[in-house]
Known about the structure:
This protein has two domains: 3-8 and 100-160, 2-Layer Sandwich (Alpha-Beta Plaits), CATH 3.30.70; 12-96, 2-Layer Sandwich (Alpha-Beta Plaits), CATH 3.30.70. Helix 1 (12-28) crosses helix 2 (53-69). The protein has 161 residues and is of the alpha+beta class. The chain has helices at residues 12-28, 53-69, 102-114, 135-146, and strands spanning 3-7, 38-41, 45-50, 77-79, 83-84, 90-96, 119-124, 127-132, 155-160. The strands form two sheets. Strands 2, 3, 4, 5 and 6 form a five-stranded antiparallel sheet that branches. A four-stranded antiparallel sheet has the order 7-8-1-9, with helices on one face. A hairpin with a 5-residue loop joins strand 5 (83-84) and strand 6.
Amino acid sequence: xxxxxxxxxxxxxxxxxxxxxxxxxxxxxxxxxxxxxxxxxxxxxxxxxxxxxxxxxxxxxxxxxxxxxxxxxxxxxxxxxxxxxxxxxxxxxxxxxxxxxxxxxxxxxxxxxxxxxxxxxxxxxxxxxxxxxxxxxxxxxxxxxxxxxxxxxxxxxxxxx
Length: 161
């Protein structure tokens, strides 16, 4: 029985490249000179620190530009509100989202059921598996999902016959 998986995975290497490019640009740009603006990367977030909220927001825009140029969708990142730090500066935490959350997965499964396609959709951890009797039904399901906006970036992987 043919099947495929619907996933939401960010390309970590492209995020790393965008982070490195943004860090280099912030170090070289004149408007960031002597502002103490820095980027710090952890496993699932990037923290932007600066001496003022405006510079932190400018660094966020720079990082987002680099992500877009590296073809990383901004749907994978969620910018928090600027938080004040102890020395009068600001900090913005940019969370990197990966995987399909339970609510979004249920919405995807429900959309497929409502369309009355001849496929079965099931939630498995952070992905949705869709199985059907023939390839045409699966391609119709892909077209249906591409035509709707679930608020996350979707990829269709692991196609099996």
